[in-house]
Amino acid sequence: MKIKGRFLTTGIGSLPYLDPLKSSEKICKDFSIPFWPQLPKRDFNENMYSQFSQGLPGAIIDRRNKRLYVQGSKDLSEGLAKIYEATISGEHTSFGITKEFAEGLYAFIEVAKKYKPQYVKGHVTGPVSLGLGIADENGKAIIYNSELKEALVRLLAIKAVWQINQLKALSSEIIIFIDEPYLTSFGSSFVNIQRQDIVSMLNVIIQEIHSKGSIAGVHCCGNTDWSIFTDTDIDIINFDAYAYLDSVLLYYKEINKFLQRGGCLAWGIVPTSEAVLKETSQTLFEQLSKGIEELEKKSIPRNLMIANSILTPSCGMGTLSEALTEDIITKLNRVSKLAKGLT
To answer: What's the pTM?
Structure first.
């Protein structure tokens, strides 16, 4: 399944608002590919780590101190077995995301029905980011615990499929992004994970998304080894085109192959910081145009890029002010309108 339409807009997930219904209304009106909102300012349960920790064996959410960790010293065998049983049986209800952890998701499903969107976007935190973002009681990231790592990957795959089943009430064409901000640290002394292991973990989730006839995307909001993603079965690669275009250009051969096999680039062209205040929709459009021209110089067909590109903010907006968020969304839509005139 390919995305029909040029330079459609969507968001990464998080927004700074507190009201789930108003947030969902805004998303449906302001984005051509609406998505359910993560609202971390509303509740600690809605940050990108807590939100997807439900069902993880030994997980403890200390809302008072805003702390999330795993009791790795406990016997986790029963919890691990339940995840594998759900994977085999395909019965995912018990591992869904409850309203307590995602008010935005439930509000969005109610609101979006009247808009009848062609595409709907959901998201899960990626296995590397969640595995590094959650530690045990001794401070060791759970991704370095082989049993927990495997269970975490399976759990995220289940949550992706569960989301698709919920969002099918809105549209038959579902996109699920795997959010991997921690992959900006890949190759550093802080992340001791093998490249092929990352590819394999991502592919487990991607293949489950594909099994439901849905589109899989990945988001990374910094500099990374972009060939990790092109070596997976991913359909959409979302990158910070405002600040890190040069790093993507280094992988032009891999990007070309990715586009040739039907991939789509999601250009995070509008910065999610105060840098947006010094930009206009015209200057951002010029940066987008320059990025396309630079890749064209690397022998990537221009028409291929134009036909297979969508636009996003550079990252989530959950920590920003509402005023700044409004500015970002306004400029994103104006850039999209300008970009649709590209030939």
So the answer is: 0.96
